[in-house]
């Protein structure tokens, strides 16, 4: 079961965040997909999804990456999108004094010149705690955690959003707000 949960979680991340069109799935602007449509589109693309496994992925996910609608008929990724099909409307939020961004040492030179960029995603992702940021960085190589002066940015007009799973989101971060 664990293996199926991991596989399904990866697959859902791919189609719900990045490439719904790859399986002919339509998401609304808020990122929601009808679960029956999702299962049917996946099947046509040669991938079998089990509704019980989908539910287990949503409920058991370590990072709460996905959410079900109140009626239980729809599913979405709560953050991390790159697809242009989705623009989740979020209320701007007041960030804490500092937030943390985990990255890899090999990106440092570039980041300290260019600042942090969202890359293919819609936002730069930030964590409230250093350990969580270090785990994010580890995905890319030897991790390093950068400190972001988030309250100062906010005071200067930069918008911040808090995703339902506690990940902070913002736009590009100029280097002046970043310390190693
Ligand atoms: C780096 C995971 C060079 C940036 C995590 C990062 C997160 C630059 C990489 C979520 C740069 C992009 C997002 C610059 C940024 N020069 N490198 N100017 N600006 N970078 O995966 O933040 O497990 O798109 O530091 O938990 O690593 O998928 O972003 O290393 O919340 O749910 O470019 O993905 O969530 O990598 O991760 P990513 P991320 P899930």
TrEMBL record:
It is an enzyme of class 2 (transferase). Keywords: NAD, Transferase. It comes from the Bacteria. Pfam families: PTS_2-RNA. Its EC number is 2.7.1.-. The keyword Protein transport does not apply. InterPro entries: Ptrans_KptA/Tpt1 (IPR002745), RNA_2'-PTrans_C (IPR042081), RNA_2'-PTrans_KptA (IPR022928), RNA_2'-PTrans_N (IPR042080). PANTHER family: PUTATIVE PHOSPHOTRANSFERASE, TRNA 2'-PHOSPHOTRANSFERASE 1. NCBIfam families: PRK00819.1-4 (NF002014). Removes the 2'-phosphate from RNA via an intermediate in which the phosphate is ADP-ribosylated by NAD followed by a presumed transesterification to release the RNA and generate ADP-ribose 1''-2''-cyclic phosphate (APPR>P). May function as an ADP-ribosylase. Belongs to the KptA/TPT1 family. This is Probable RNA 2'-phosphotransferase. It comes from Lysobacter arenosi.
